[in-house]
Design brief:
By secondary structure, the chain is mostly helical. It is built from 2 helices and no strands. The protein has one domain. The longest helix is centred in the middle third of the chain and has 43 residues. The radius of gyration is 27 Å and the shape is rod-shaped. The N and C termini lie far apart (about 85 Å). InterPro entries: Haem_export_protD_CcmD. Keywords: Cell inner membrane, Cell membrane, Cytochrome c-type biogenesis, Membrane, Transmembrane, Transmembrane helix, Transport.
Length: about 60
Amino acid sequence: MSEWLAMGGHGFYIWSSYAMMALCVAAEMWSLRQRRKAAWQRVDEAREEHESARPARRTETE
């Protein structure tokens, strides 16, 4: 098992490359989640602004 982990003397480079790749993927997923949350907040704010700017509907009794 330790021979497999050592990967012919290149284990440190290989496993650190895998670790950096995993870190970058995790950071990208976090960044995407934050941007998605911010985009939905902007959509909600725009929707609220649009609804508040719309005049009230008149009913037939008025």
